[in-house]
Design brief:
The protein is built from three helices and no strands. With 88 residues, it is mostly helical.
Amino acid sequence: MKQILSDLWSGEIRPYEDLGVGNREMTEAARDMSKKYRELFDSLDKEQQAALEQYYECVNRYIIINLEVSFSDGFCLGMKLAAAALSE
């Protein structure tokens, strides 16, 4: 357990890199999203493309924060469950 925590802290374990790996539904959704984004981007003029890029960056920042919070919340819940199991 101590080594796992150490590896998480040091960045040796990166759970976000495996997010959705092998999940067909996520792979298809990502492919569709990318295709639709490219179609939309190509249909816009330069000013609109710049605005879309700014929006895209904001969405990506939100997603990253959301993933970090979800991981932290899940980790805390897992620790509470482990502590409760050990105290029984």
